[in-house]
Amino acid sequence: MDVSLTRARRLVFGSPPYLQLKALIGPHAGYSYSGPTAAHGYVNIDPSQVTKIILLGPSHHVYLRGCAVSGASTYETPVGDITVDVETCKALLKTGNFEKMSLRVDEEEHSLELHLPYIAQVMKGHDFSLVPIMVGSIDAELEKVYGEILSEYFGKPGHLFIVSTDFCHWGSRFRYTFYDRSFGKIWRCVEHLDRKGMDLIEKKSPTEFRDYLEEYNNTICGRHPISIFLQAVNLSGVESSIKFVHYAQSSKCLRETDSSVSYASAICYSSS
Question: Which of 29, 149, 205, 231 is deepest in the core (most CB within 10 A)?
Fold first, then answer.
């Protein structure tokens, strides 16, 4: 599998002010659609600096009023197996705020699955473990609860967060056709809408991001994983910055009968 990592632009880490990669935000569509966008995030990983990856993805198939961890011990991918961090999953279950995914639910959720080959490829030859977390439909209060639980891990050395999300799903088949004609073509309006949300994520403001979602109803499928992550960042006490490094659309909508999905990739880094 060609995950296009060598063709993405890499930011320079490990030089003054000694930036440390703490997290990625990336898409989970088919590789031919969103692969290049995802690569712009993954290319920044230094595998020698990562010992544990916490992967947050939205639930697409199962209604979940909370979050669930994987019950598997190993994930198989076309480019190598990944060890699931069973002990960390158990620790999260002990908080009473998580449940365990069944094998069927785990296998059906593509928001987690489609990141696995990237992870396996980048981390090949290095010892690490994965904590897969499926996020359900939760309110702002629960987003903060989960953010507080996970903030402990954000502050630990060697821990990397990956947040799985696509951005705007536009078109009648997605039941979302917001269009402000002042921006010209539909695809330009969609991009403006997405970038408005991306700006708020870069501000690390879960409250403003939620307000934006309520105002525009933008169909960002990973809205809850993003919000949990922003809470974790803010509650961790770690000084960090978020920067989007790539944006794309599956197609440029020109008519109301068209449809598209947007993809964005971001990195979160701290300085030490």
Answer: 231
Q: Where are the alpha helices (DSSP H) in the chain?
A: 31-42, 86-94, 103-108, 110-113, 116-122, 140-154, 186-202, 206-216, 223-236
Contact 97, 131 (CB under 8 A): no
Q: What residue type is assigned to position 191 of the chain? A: E
Contacts of 72 by beta carbon, 8 Å cutoff, 6+ apart:
84, 103, 106
Q: What is the CATH number of the domain that holds 153?
A: 3.40.830.10
pLDDT tens digits for range 15-74: 445 689 999 999 999 999 999 999 999 999 999 999 999 999 998 877 788 999 999 999
Q: What length does the chain have?
A: 272
Q: What is the pLDDT of residues 210-258, one digit of tens each?
A: 999 999 999 999 999 999 999 999 999 999 999 999 999 999 999 999 9
Put simply, whether the predicted model's pTM sits higher than 0.90 gets the answer yes
* Residue in 25, 14, 13, 9 with CA at minimum distance from that of residue 201: 25
Q: How many domains does the chain have?
A: 1
User: CB of 242 within 8 A of CB of 264?
Assistant: no
Range of the domain at 216: 5-271
Residues 6+ apart with CB under 8 A from 8: 36, 39, 40, 41, 42, 43, 246
Q: By the 8 A CB rule, do 124 and 78 touch? A: no
Residue 7 banded pLDDT, cuts 50, 70, 90? very low
